[in-house]
Amino acid sequence: MALLNNNLAVISSGWLTEMVSQAMRPENGAVGAKLYFDNGTIQHGGVILVLGPDGVAGHSHKGSPRNATGYFGRLMLRQNLSAVTAAYLVVQRSIYHEVGGLNQERLKVAFNDVDFGLKITAAGYRNLWTPYAEVYHYESISRGYEVTPEKHRRFETEKDYMYLQWGDSLAQDPYYNLNLTADVEGFSIAWPPRTDWG
């Protein structure tokens, strides 16, 4: 089954074949695509936990040029990640139901895809991101931005739920190096270096 936002425009041939063929592999759960903003910069190269200012998760390589190769070529390679965006993903229906689908009650807007990805991983599957399905994502055109007090409160409630539900799982992404920054959605070196190697 495919989950698709209402603000997408496909720009690569073979996009559906790529997504479905990867989702049919028995080890894979959710399969996500490479998404671009309307200005051609990258919106989604996969989801990295703890990345970005909200401290829950962020989009890999967000804002990079369309032709960027990414950190060690990651924008050109299929790869496993903790989660992929639900703006466009493909997953086997049986796996979707096995893990309980998207939590539409507690996560109405934010982080429902991150929660979904973590549930898939906990069930023993792998999430996969592919650069071979490319889509424009006209982000927030249909729902707007988090600018009203009500939307801000809803966002904070959903963030709190993620901390309560996943706790320490959000502290370090197994697909992101400890020496890289968690402050911005890039792959720059953290400074000062981390010392909490445990």
Which key features would you list for this structure?
single chain; 198 residues; alpha+beta; 7-stranded mixed beta sheet; two-stranded antiparallel sheet
What's the quick description here?
The protein is 22% helix and 21% strand. The protein has 198 residues and is of the alpha+beta class.
Note down, in words, how this protein is organized.
By secondary structure, the chain is an alpha+beta fold. It has four helices and nine strands, in the order ββαββββββααβα. The chain is globular. The N and C termini lie far apart (about 40 Å). The model has no long low-confidence stretch (mean pLDDT about 90).
Low-confidence stretches: none
Query: What do the pLDDT scores average to?
Result: 90
Roughly what percent helix?
Answer: 10-25%
End-to-end CA span: 40 Å
In total, the number of strands is: 9
Shape: globular
What is the C-alpha radius of gyration, as a whole number of Å?
16 Å
Order of helices and strands: EEHEEEEEEHHEH
Question: What is the number of helical segments per DSSP (H or I, 4+ residues)?
Answer: 4
Give the quaternary arrangement of the chains: single chain
Main sheet specs:
7 strands, mixed
Q: Given the helix and strand composition, which structural class is it?
A: alpha+beta
Q: Strand percentage, roughly?
A: 15-25%
